[in-house]
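Give me structure tokens for this 482-residue protein.
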Amino acid sequence: MTNISELFIRRPVMTTLVMLGILLFGVLGYRLLPVSDLPTVDFPTILVIAELPGASPETMASAVAIPLERQFSTISGLDSMNSTNTLGMTRITLQFSLDRDIDAAAQDVQAMIGKAARQLPPDMPNPPSYQKVNPADFPVLFLQLSSPTLPLSAVHEYADTFIAQRISMVSGVAQVAIFGAQKYAVRAQLDPKALASRSIGIDEVAKAIQSGNVNLPTGTLYGPHQAFTIEASGKLSNAEAYRPLIVTYRNGSPVRLSDLGKVIDSVENNKVANWYVNIPAIGLAVYRQPGTNTVEVVDSIRKLLPTLRSQMPASVDLHVLFDRSQSIRDSVNDVKFTLFLTLCLVVLVIFLFLRNLSATIIPSLALPMSIIGTFSVMYLLNYSLDNLSLMALTLSVGFVVDDAIVMLENIVRHMEMGEKPLQAAFHGSREIGFTIVSMTLSLVAVFIPILFMGGIVGRLLHEFAVTIGVAILVSGFISLSL
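Here you go.
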């Protein structure tokens, strides 16, 4: 039988260069691997949001959700569809099969929204919008913005137009969501008695407000030598500007908006709120892009925070409420320590049984080389350093050392029979080479069924199975060569 190891035994320089190459590419791959808590698994999920201010949940369900759901139900590959109807808002979550392309599904959703547009209420302020979401991806950073002096609507303005946009520009950030939004709005609180005494309906008031708050081109004045563009801003910016708005005329006298009730500065939705240490605040949740390094993304955002604080008023406080990277660092470091401790214990056991320091060096080198070489393959496969992949490497420690021990023990046996080290290496490797190949392949075959597991669990364990399989294959190669 052909001796696989003979090529490496006769060419020690080539063997050394091969081992150095495995070591170099493994270290580079380790430094480039993203760090996360779990493998990156993209769920083809799309969230559709539709708004109709003032509509009850029952109205949103019958007038908005049902027409959209009828169209969405015709999309191929749709596994589940859930809708939630609240005051003035409908949220429809579309979950597609795992083999469905999310971009193609998004195009189908957009087409179905267009088909359902004619059946939706005409007074919706905006057509339904959709976005691709990943329910398995949690925010990596929570920020809180508060102020003891400024109104919360002003704080929301800083959060929405300044901080969220700046953080969204950081590499690796997917989106920044705002919680407890307090966007500025003017609220007209009408008095039913005042409306009834003047025989004015609410629809007349709404129409007057809508027509009185427009920003349209006024016209142009043409002269013999010059032309002038008339600029007349019809946008009303605060409650004081809305109060003198004429709603209608009764008995030849104008009826102004202030005559029918209170007009106050408020927010769009005063039924939501967010607090930070008993102080009203605006929350920002930062989501990372799939496949990016969570730790690096959070570190980049934290470096940006001092700059953001310096460009905001001193009365606005910016706090970090939750940092997901901290738990990831602790978890990954704990698994790294377990892996290092396992390596040390395996080397110690080898030394106790062989009772030979020089004979212990070979399997002791094969063990870290197998782990380091696996990092380069993990990088090529776009894997990450997470709890499952590190657990696979920890479990593989007991497997990867077997090949080196079997090879070394057979060579030592020939040396004890009186053969010279070179001859013992040739004879021992020739006898045990096929055994090592069969051992390696049989161990890898044990984890092949995990690759064919379906569903979410199969997606999560796929990286685990490939990582431990690659580690075993690399250990087999190193045992035959080193």
